[in-house]
Amino acid sequence: MRIAVAYSSKKGLQKEYRKHLEEFLFDQEEEPPPSDFFAEGDSECTINAVMEAFRSKGHTVCGVEADDEAPVNLARSRPDMVFNIAEGLFGDFRESYIPMVCERLGLPYSGSGPLTLAVCLNKERTKEILSYHSIPNARFMTVSPNEKINLDGFKFPAIIKPVAEGSSKGIFDDSVVDDARTAKKRIVEKIRKYRQPVIVEEFLDGREFTVAAWGNGTGFEVLPIISISYDELPSNARKIYSYEAKWVWDTPEKPLDIFKCPADLTSKEKKLIEDTVRKTCAVLGVKDLCRVDIRFDSKGVPNVLELNPLPGILPNPDDNSCFPKAARTAGYNYPDMLDNIIRIAAKRWGIGKESENRRTGERAAKKSRKSK
Predict the structure, then answer these.
(1) For the chain, which domains are there?
(2) In sequence order, what are the residues at sequence separation of 6 or more whose Cβ sits closer than 8 angstroms to the Cβ of residue 120?
(3) Is 58 left (phi over 0), alpha (psi -120 to 50) or beta?
(4) DSSP string covering 53-108, please?
(5) pLDDT digits (tens, 9 = 90+) for 229-269
(6) Is the pTM of this model over 0.85?
(7) Considering the chain, what is the average pLDDT of its residues?
(8) 155 touches 297 (CB < 8 A)
(9) What is the DSSP letter of 237?
(10) How far apart are CA 215 and CA 361, in angstroms?
């Protein structure tokens, strides 16, 4: 299969940021971006590992940066499948860019569609849909820029996050607050730094899990569940998978041993989590793969924290990337995992060996006509 890997490199996101400054801010003063601003960009190591993994499975691979030239590059290359890991940088629809381009060009792609990616990126919209479908999630409220902050009656402790970010962007150790006064201060800080609404969510103090799943429809398979233990964090740290826990305290030289896969769960707890994950993916229209973060409440009910339909897939086991960790526990090495995702996506698009051969024949015929 001819695969185009569509990605957002860290260098590409930095270039996008500089262009944004030039085009939209003109001569206005701009404070430096937050320290976690480019956290979702993939390193060259990850991008190369993904492409090499596909090549090792016999696929022909090219890379496409998700920038202004992506539509032209994809239209020119016309791959059989676009493997989408592109995150983008600005706006609620930043993760939807490549799927929208693919749909405009009539190209099959892996992962969820533009609407699902946009909804799942926005924590407020996600939680509204989950609540409508009676899927447990923590009580919440949102505060928009320039809106009066009214926390009357809100239960503390609470956690405060930007409404539309991933990779723990905007979730620091001090994001958990114990009173309204501190909450208001943190809300103002995050609105100023991330230039978007923030979500204030009741803090659940139960056990936490992250759950990888792949497939489609009734064939959604939940991979071995991962539990998250915060015992190795600094003694005064909050029990959350914060930016510090993910990117500062957890280093290749001194990795944090905070994940256990498979998690220690009773058969009842395991089924509750799996059922919640499957229902969550179904109501939000997830395709091919996802990672769902779950936390128990005081009654032992699994609550959905958020969905990651574009989960991280770092190749190095020491990097604690959870989707590959769950896949390894299920018996898949890195190339096997990626190849299975492509096969799941290809099946959904109706791309089998016959259709691949037909597309190859069509390309050969077109090339022959051009040469005459």
Answers:
(1) 2-111 (3.40.50.20), 135-202 (3.30.1490.20), 208-348 (3.30.470.20)
(2) 112, 126, 284, 286, 306, 307, 308, 309
(3) left
(4) HHHHTT-EEEEEESSTTHHHHHHHH--SEEEE----SSSTTGGGHHHHHHHHHT--
(5) 988 888 888 988 887 887 778 777 777 788 999 999 999 99
(6) yes
(7) 89
(8) no
(9) S
(10) 29
Cβ burial 32-65 (10 Å sphere, 16+ → b, else e): eebebbbbbbbeeebbebbbebbeebebebebbb
* Predicted pLDDT of residue 332: 98
**Quick one: tokens of 213?**
């799943």
- In the chain, beta strands by DSSP E: 2-7, 60-65, 81-84, 140-143, 158-162, 176-177, 198-202, 208-215, 221-222, 226-228, 259-260, 288-296, 302-308
Q: CA 33, 83, 49: angle at the middle one, nearest 5?
A: 75
Cα–Cα distances (Å) from 282 to 324, 341, 344, in that order, read 22, 18, 16
